[in-house]
Design goal:
The protein is 33% helix and 20% strand. The chain contains 38 helices and 39 strands. The longest helix has 18 residues.
Length: 1102
């Protein structure tokens, strides 16, 4: 990642461009190629049945996506790793790749080769994937020196792509190549500085191996400091390979994999032109010229071609610096340069000398680059490990060269002292640590200085588990942000497989100026935590700036549960540093319930709403990245329910002096570039006898048996009793809307106003028995089913109970069911048809079955009779039954022992003339008084304002009136107690007053009692012209202005989604009319967004 530099990238000192037209114009289409030809261990590609999901193929690719070779030109979002592969592919005869599994150092090149992309020489570059072992390079040597080698290609470079961990095994081959180089092809090795270090729990950046190898074998060694330089240095290294076998090294953990915007990317033809022109310079040099002279001459020619100012050694900082830090490496150089330049602006006489070309080490060029004023040279020299750091008898390779160059120099009046600041490969640097090496100031003094330039930079961090359904959301967001051509976006990801079984941290930076120096985000504007447990493992909150925003995903959590979910030390930090907290609850989204993969879109929209609300209006750009318009519309409608701000209570400032505050790491350590390969095998259900079940019940301790009401569900459940079930609409009316009330008894169920009741319904007994008979099952057979919440827990059921309570056998099957069922088909024709229905070619027929025929799992099993899975396989491939939530139509403050619902029975007739019903609504409508029901409580966004005097403006369509009955009941109780209450405007909509005047007598009684101020009734079909709820609102807009705007009321809409735009338009009209009357300038759309933030515009739509 990086700080904002003071200069734009095209005109930095080392990259000043000539206006000579060498670079081609940028391609119009910079979208990554979408060809599925890559073998990668990055992410499992879980395609959602309802939308196109943005999935990352490899962390070495831009935004994790494959990129078209021809599109790499001009301003491009790219990774250094991809640019290195582009240079190697364009200019090489063959690429020998030694990429460890999951490193994906060659993934783009293999893709281009598979697509038969031509290189600059007019043919496809072959990519040979090799194993890293002893003698690994022998095949490459054998190819170069083969008797059958085409000598017309002897001038074409051969390239090697590897990690620094491979250099040990390649050493003998590189030694032989160096000895025979006069008769060999130009040879360049592009090496990612990354290795697994012994004794380390993660990956380390390894330059030490390359430094030693280059020195011992006489190889050239060139370093890239940033992604912006990686293509140029890969090209220069390929040119330098005409003189010496050359190693080009770059950071393989962060800089090499960061997706960033590079302005001046060369196309293949540009690379070829520069390569040819610069190599010709060699013919003009004396054959006796040494390697240093040739390297210097080639770099001068290279700069002339590109208009850049690269040097063998590059100095940055104070012109009269007394202390200079000598560095080698990507992060070390880019970070140190940034710090030194900013410190020198404050008068600090410090500087940094970046060693770009370590071998050949040109002593004269090194001394020329140093200011004559220098008194102290500190060499930042990497060594293998802490043992080498502690060994005072050994020195870093870089120190020995610097010492030899300076000790005999006559440039200085007094020779500067040379200090070897050794550091292990596992050490990472931050702005603070670099500044502490450069200056003698205290930590407090350094922290008070501006080490980086944070001008106009936005910083965001995402934390999630590797296998979360929303793990790709940050990459999709960064892709969205990159659509702004005026911004520079950087995406960085870190994977740690040792935290919570696999954790990924994603940093996004966005700035108007280039971001070059890498360091982790420590002052994030907003942080998203996809797994609350991570708050106990990592110091996430300390990386949020004071006053920043924190979004935590907490499925099913109520506000009162947050103290249990969030550790005390985190709560204290959030309170003390005034961090804004938002709770994301995916369980409140019907769209996510329908398709869990949609959670990634919910997280994306939640982030935009909190951190970038201006981009919510451009959701079509996000649709183009993943999803589709229909899914986005659904999820957008759920956003108000699923995402809620949390007001931090004063109790969060209470410090427990006896509690031990854990010392947590500020971040995770990179241990991989992908998650573990986890093959999740669902535990089968096991058929048991009554005897074995009895043993479990009698000897509970020995068998660790526990009795539970619904052990198969994770939420807390209660058993409640039906006390009233009455139909609200006439029997002759085609819609059965009914009121059902439950006695809570001793269940302990508690609910708040506006919450929903989750009903754990059961399948129809007659239909279950019919299926059991057809399928030939024994209803009394005992089955132990692995709980879907915890595979180690077995739920004991009979086959009848499982089909009645657990298995959604009469639910709608997804595509994957057809595919799974095909494995059991013995008839080839049926097998083929099932596979077709489960694949893309059967999409139209699948849609017809799902939406027109409303086919169920049972229907499919009846239809394809040769596919007859056993019962435990049915448990495995058929979805479990889900609870159904209904807005509660009562207040427990008024009726402490009861809870009421208002529900409409979902019913239709399918093409075969069969009556079909919604499983849960039919179940509830048939329940007699005294029947027991399993229920749970679900939180909701429908909450009363904090002030009892705040007016309520409520709009409910059909059963959407349910929560408003609870609101009105509560306000009526307050009024009866003598309390002052705000006005209530209730707008209700339905088809006919005679049939659907739901709770009509209650509303009128409340109006007569002065509880309801205004009752706006819209019965759409009772008159020739249609009248809808928005019409009644517009007719009484003066009342809305008074209650909503003047008296700061809250607006609620509950019901179907279709009236949302029309109702919102009326509210905007009210805002505009009031603003005009008050002679104020107000943007109604933005005002609605502000009201949303203040929970004064609340939607619960479905």
């Amino acid at each position: 990642m990086g700080s904002v530099m003071d200069l734009d990238p095209p005109i930095s000192p080392s990259r000043k461009r000539k206006a000579d037209g060498i670079l081609e114009q940028p391609k119009k289409n910079q979208e990554p190629a979408g060809d599925e030809v890559l073998d990668s261990t990055w992410n499992s590609n879980e395609d959602s049945p309802t939308f196109r999901k943005f999935s990352q193929k490899s962390s070495s690719l831009p935004f994790g996506q494959p990129i078209d070779f021809a599109s790499i030109s001009g301003p491009t979002y790219i990774t250094a790793q991809t640019l290195v592969q582009q240079v190697a592919y364009s200019l090489s005869d063959k690429i020998f790749s030694y990429s460890p599994e999951s490193f994906d150092l060659d993934i783009a090149a293999k893709n281009w080769s598979a697509l038969k992309t031509e290189n600059a020489n007019g043919y496809t570059t072959k990519v040979a994937s090799m194993q890293t072992r002893t003698g690994a390079g022998s095949i490459a040597l054998g190819y170069i020196f083969s008797k059958d080698f085409d000598l017309t290609k002897r001038h074409i470079p051969q390239s090697l792509i590897a990690s620094s961990s491979s250099l040990h095994n390649l050493r003998s081959s590189l030694d032989q190549l160096s000895l025979l180089y006069s008769v060999a092809n130009p040879f360049v090795a592009h090496v990612a500085a990354v290795d697994y270090a012994p004794g380390s729990s993660g990956l380390v950046t390894d330059y030490a191996t390359a430094l030693t190898t280059a020195e011992d074998l006489g190889l050239a060694l060139v370093s890239s400091s940033s992604a912006y330089e990686s293509q140029h240095m890969a090209l220069f290294s390929t040119i330098l390979a005409s003189v010496l076998p050359t190693v080009h090294i770059y950071d393989g953990i962060n800089v090499g994999r960061d997706t960033t915007r590079v302005i001046d990317v060369l196309s293949q033809s540009g690379l070829k032109n520069i390569y040819s022109n610069v190599v010709q310079r060699l013919s003009k040099l004396s054959k006796r010229a040494d390697a240093e002279t040739k390297a210097t001459s080639l770099l001068d020619a290279f700069n002339n071609e590109l208009g850049t100012a690269y040097g063998l050694f590059e100095y940055h900082g104070h012109s009269a610096a007394e202390k200079v830090l000598v560095v080698f490496g990507s992060v070390e150089a880019s970070l140190a340069v940034t710090i030194a330049e900013n410190l020198s602006k404050t008068g600090e006489k410090v500087g940094v000398l970046n060693v770009r070309v370590y071998r050949p080490f040109a002593e004269e060029a090194f001394l020329e680059a140093l200011p004559a004023s220098v008194r102290n040279l500190t060499v930042l020299g990497q060594v293998l490990d802490e043992t080498a750091v502690a060994d005072t008898s050994s020195h870093s390779s870089l120190y020995e060269d610097v010492l030899a160059a300076t000790v005999f120099s006559d440039k200085f009046a007094t020779s500067p002292s040379v200090i070897d600041y050794k550091y292990a490969r596992s050490q990472t640097f931050t702005p603070l640590s670099i500044a502490s090496i450069l200056t003698l100031k205290t930590v407090d003094e350094i922290e008070a200085m501006e080490l980086i330039s944070p001008k106009q930079v936005e910083q965001y961090t995402f934390w999630d588990l590797e296998h979360s359904s929303a793990v790709s959301a940050p990459a999709a967001i960064s892709k969205l942000l990159s659509g702004d051509s005026a911004s520079n976006v950087v995406l960085n990801q870190t994977h740690d497989n040792f935290v919570q079984g696999g954790t990924v941290r994603t940093d996004i930076r966005s700035s108007k100026k280039s971001i070059e120096a890498y360091y982790p985000v420590t002052e994030a504007d907003a942080v998203v935590v996809g797994e609350a447990k991570l708050l106990q493992d990592v110091g996430i909150v300390q990386n949020i700036k004071t006053g920043g925003k924190l979004i935590v995903k907490l499925p099913g959590a109520k506000d009162e549960d947050l103290e249990k979910k969030i550790p005390l030390f985190v709560r204290n930090d959030v309170k003390f540093r005034n961090i804004q907290l938002f709770v994301l609850d995916p369980t409140l989204s019907p769209a996510v319930e329908k398709d869990p993969a949609v959670e990634t879109i919910l997280l994306e929209l939640s982030f935009l709403k909190v951190a970038k609300p201006d981009l919510l209006t451009s959701s079509q750009r996000l649709v183009a990245i993943n999803g589709n318009t229909e899914v986005f519309t659904e999820v957008s409608a759920d956003l108000e329910k699923a995402l809620r701000p949390f007001d931090i209570p004063e109790s969060w400032s209470e410090v427990d002096v006896d509690a031990e505050v854990p010392t947590l790491p500020a971040t995770i350590k990179s241990s991989s570039f992908t998650g573990f390969e986890k093959e999740e095998v669902e535990a089968p259900s096991l058929l048991r006898s009554w005897r074995s079940a009895a043993k479990g019940l009698v000897f509970k301790e020995a068998y660790r048996t526990e009795s539970a009401l619904r052990p198969d569900v994770s939420v807390k459940t209660y058993e409640i009793t039906v006390q009233e079930n009455r139909r609200l609409t006439p029997l002759t009316y085609d819609r059965n809307i009914f009121h059902i009330e439950f006695d809570l008894g001793q269940s302990g169920l508690k609910y708040a106003i506006g919450e929903a009741l989750g009903i754990h319904a059961e399948n129809d007994v007659d239909e279950v028995n019919e299926f059991i008979k057809f399928y030939g099952l024994n209803p009394d057979e005992i089955v132990e089913v692995a709980s879907r919440e915890d595979p180690n827990v077995l739920d004991t059921r009979t086959v009848f109970q499982s089909l009645t309570q657990n298995i959604d056998i009469f639910g709608k099957p997804p595509k994957r069911f057809y595919e799974a069922l095909a494995e059991f088909a013995t008839d080839e024709k049926e097998k083929k048809e099932l596979l077709t229905l489960g694949g893309p070619e059967g999409a139209t027929e699948f849609k017809r079955r799902a939406e027109v025929d409303t086919i169920t799992f049972a229907d499919v099993l009846l239809e394809f009779q040769s596919a007859h899975p056993s019962f435990h396989d049915i448990v495995r491939i058929v979805s479990p039954m889900k609870r159904r939530e209904y807005s509660i139509a009562s207040s427990q403050m008024v009726g402490p022992t009861t809870v009421a619902l208002m529900i409409v029975v979902v019913n239709w007739v399918d093409p075969k003339g069969r009556d079909r019903f919604g499983q849960a609504t039919r179940y509830l409508s048939r329940l007699p008084v005294g029947a027991k029901v399993t229920a749970s409580v679900k939180a909701s966004v429908m909450k009363l304002p904090a002030k009892d005097t705040a007016p309520l403006i409520m709009a409910g369509l059909g059963t959407g009136l349910a929560p408003f009955r609870a609101f009105v009941q509560y306000r009526a109780m307050q009024k009866a107690q003598g309390k002052e209450i705000g006005s209530i405007l209730l707008y209700m909509g339905s088809r006919h007053q005679r049939e659907e005047y739901l709770y009509g007598e209650e509303w009128e009684a409340y109006q007569d009692a002065g509880v309801i101020t205004l009752l706006g009734r819209a019965f759409s079909r009772d008159q020739p012209q249609k009248i809808y709820i928005q019409d009644r609102m517009r007719q009484t807009i003066a009342d809305i202005i008074k209650a909503y705007i003047k008296e700061e009321g809250a607006f609620y809409l509950c019901g179907p989604t279709w009236p949302v735009p029309d109702v919102t338009e009326v509210l905007q009209e009210a805002i505009a009319r009031d603003a005009k009357a008050s002679n104020k300038k107000v943007d109604p759309k933005k005002e609605i967004e502000r009201l949303k933030e203040g929970l004064r515009y609340v939607l619960e739509v479905y």
